[in-house]
Structure formats: structure tokens, C-alpha cells
């Protein structure tokens, strides 16, 4: 059983930066791709970024060039560095882990991911 705990959310002004962290525990040897999704009020949850166990990454068009996903496999932690934040980035951000893929796999689909964190709120004021 994998547990994911996000941290680092908060309130920031437009143009500012935040760094989210997601620490995994329990069965971490089985984690392949990890991802960040977000859900704004009244909207469906959407893909933000994902990273392979081997390190390659993919991003939603809306965050390319502003957000960077990274991971430290030794610490079982994935990060999301968010720069040039906009009010439309306001959402609850969720970390997710895939345990059925491979070290080369990564996906933007929610259904790929087996475990989810509880979410951390990011609010960007204008």
C-alpha cells in the first residue's frame, strides 16, 4: 500500500512561485510514473505534469515553460516547481503514483494512476 502526502501549497500573488512536494511511503519500490493533477472549483480534475521513473517528463500545454516536475527516487519524493503563477492556476493539486507501468512509462490519463494524495490548495491572487 502506497501513501502519498502533498505539501507546499498556499496563497501567492500572481507572478509568484511555489514548490509543491509529494512524499511517498509504503511499497515505494513499486512506483513507476508519478504525476500532478489539479482541480479548480466547479471543474473536472485535469492533468498538470508527469515524470517517468527514468526521469523523462510531460506537461499540460497550460503550464509548459512555467512549471517543472522533478523527482528524487532516493527520497521517494516528487516535486512541482511552479513559477509565473496565474489566478487560473488556483486549484487543489493532487499527487498520483502508478505501480503497474514501467520505468519508461508516463501518462496524462487519471486512470493510469493507482494511488492519490489528499491534495494541497494553491491559491493565486490577482
Helix content bin:
under 10%
Provide the gyration radius in Å.
13 Å
Number of helices: 0
**What is the makeup of the main sheet?**
7 strands, mixed
Question: Low-confidence spans: pLDDT under 50, at least 5 residues?
Answer: none
* Average predicted local confidence, pLDDT: 95
Given helix and strand content, the structural type is mainly beta
- The CA-CA distance between the termini, in Å, is 40 Å
Question: Would you list the SSEs in sequence order as H and E?
Answer: EEEEEEEEEEE
Count of DSSP strands: 11
Percentage beta strand: over 45%
Described by the principal axes of the CA atoms, the overall outline is globular
TL;DR?
With 126 residues, the protein is mostly beta strands. It has no helices and 11 strands. It is 0% helix and 47% strand.
Describe the structure.
- Strands 2, 4, 5, 6, 9, 10 and 11 form a 7-stranded mixed β-sheet that branches. The chain has a 4-stranded antiparallel β-sheet with strand order 1-3-8-7, with no helix packed on it.
- The chain is mainly β.
- The protein has no helices and 11 strands.
- 0% of the residues lie in helices and 47% in strands.
- The protein starts with a strand and ends with a strand.
